[in-house]
Amino acid sequence: MSGKWRSPLDIISKYLLFFFISRPIERCFSLSEDHIFQVDLAFNIFFLLYFILRFIAAQDKFWFWLSLNSVVDFFTIPPIFVSIYMVRTWLGLRFLRALRLMQLSEILQFLSILRTSNSIKLLNLVTLLLTLWLGFAGIIHLVENSGDPWLQFANKQPLSYWTCIYFLVVTMSTVGYGDVYAKTVLGRIFATLFIFGGLALFATVVPEIYEILSQRGKYSGSLQSEKGKK
């Protein structure tokens, strides 16, 4: 099965992620009435079949299990089938779908939208930052809405996914308004890891983005016709 079919489906799957993260962490549902779940189930069935075909075609079976697509599939495909059996859906680690953003440049190259090395590098840097924000926001969203397990989940707080993104952006910018903060121990641990890793990445990526945007090739300008003198 060609990757040309998976590329647009990956994009649609990313959009479905944002529908799910706007819903409660855990809830009961009806398969016959939840149309968004039905669409997501159809995509996951396709990804499961694609996973099996990729495994059969893989020359190195060991490294196949460690690839980005495989790791994402491990944590996002099985839970949806468990949800059908339990008649109860749990958001879980579906935020890992944000990792597929790292392949956005490959998709745009395949569609012949990206053609230059600078545009590819720029998009890779931007998607790296977005993946970091969206991924850690998913972790904070999960642990803060669930609570610490050793405290019987008593210290949870209702935070939307978008609030978690805002919290991490403010944290990375070192502003720290204090209007949103992590209450759980797990949330504070992951927020601390994000500060160390995020600031280091931010300090490395932003100068590279500025350098690319400030570059101007020798022949990148446009030609203007001028009248000659007789």
Automatic annotation (TrEMBL):
Broad class of the protein's primary localization: membrane
Transmembrane segments: 36-56, 62-87, 122-143, 159-177, 189-210
Domain Ion transport stretches: 21-216
Subcellular localization(s) per the UniProt record: Membrane
Stored InterPro entries: Ion_trans_dom, K_chnl_Slo-like
Molecular function via GO: potassium channel activity
Pfam families: Ion_trans
A cellular component term, taken from the record's GO annotations: monoatomic ion channel complex
Domain of life: Eukaryota
Entry membrane topology: Multi-pass membrane protein
Keyword tags: Calcium, Ion channel, Ion transport, Membrane, Potassium, Potassium channel, Potassium transport, Transmembrane, Transmembrane helix, Transport, Voltage-gated channel
Name of the protein this chain belongs to: BK channel
Provenance organism: Strongylocentrotus purpuratus (Purple sea urchin)
Origin organism lineage: Eukaryota, Metazoa, Echinodermata, Eleutherozoa, Echinozoa
